[in-house]
């Protein structure tokens, strides 16, 4: 471990409050005359404070202090004289302490990061927009239908279609899962309005492969449950190439 790394770890212990008292007092005295050391201490304070912002405080139990006191009392007493322990042993003990605390700090940081990430809201899924054009042969479209497959929300807009007296436009869908007969999606109201959630009960994959149609029906919709008037058809196509596979 380099001298810089040793100082960095010592400052980390200082900020955490785990540095022995003698070393802590010496480091505190150096702060006033060593701007680089003061800056390093502030960096560690900001770093640890930022990680703890997303962690709820925990009140220690009433037995914690007594347990700490018993642990301290059970520790073997230190040698009375520094000469009783060789210098290399003291150095190794200091390095061991540094390594233990570096591991503890890294583990604590990882746990804090996990706790913070666990509380972050999940990103909302991107919209999968698809569009279908309803037209006769090469004529301009009569209607445009857009569908977001994630939310199953639809929007239908007239292009060249015009209101017909005593008539209603009705949207239909044919899907392999439901057999050959068209299923009514809904009857358009005044100004070509249609419930935007009309497709909420359908699976996105079913909608992706379905055929849609719009027929002109008696006012209020088909009386038979099937198209009775002329119909125009359309298929859903993705509005961008990166929204998954389109129609086969």
* Sheet with the most strands, sense and barrel status: 4 strands, antiparallel
Q: Give the topology string: H per helix, E per strand.
A: HHHHHEEEEEHEEE
Query: How far do the termini sit from each other?
Result: 62 Å
The average pLDDT value, as a whole number, equals: 77
Question: What is the 3D form?
Answer: rod-shaped
H/I helix tally = 6
Structural class: alpha+beta
Cα gyration radius (Å): 36 Å
| Amount of helix | 25-40%
Uncertain spans, ≥5 residues at pLDDT below 50?
A: none
Q: What is the topology, as strand order, of the major beta sheet?
A: 3-2-1-8
Q: Strand content of the residues, in percent?
A: 15-25%
Number of strands: 8
Which characteristics define this entry?
248 residues; alpha+beta; four-stranded antiparallel β-sheet; 6 helices; 8 strands
What are the SSEs and their pairings?
Blueprint: H1 3-16, H2 21-31, H3 35-52, H4 64-74, H5 87-118, E1 129-134, E2 143-148, E3 153-158, E4 167-174, E5 183-187, H6 204-209, E6 211-218, E7 231-235, E8 237-238
Antiparallel strand pairs: 1-2, 1-8, 2-3, 4-5, 4-6, 6-7
Helix pairs in contact: 1-3, 1-5
Description:
The chain is of the alpha+beta class and 248 residues long. It has six helices and eight strands. The protein has helices at 3-16, 21-31, 35-52, 64-74, 87-118, 204-209, and strands at 129-134, 143-148, 153-158, 167-174, 183-187, 211-218, 231-235, 237-238. The strands form two sheets. Strands 3-2-1-8 form a four-stranded antiparallel sheet, with no helix packed on it. α1 crosses α5 (87-118). It is rod-shaped, with a radius of gyration of 36 Å. The mean pLDDT is 77.
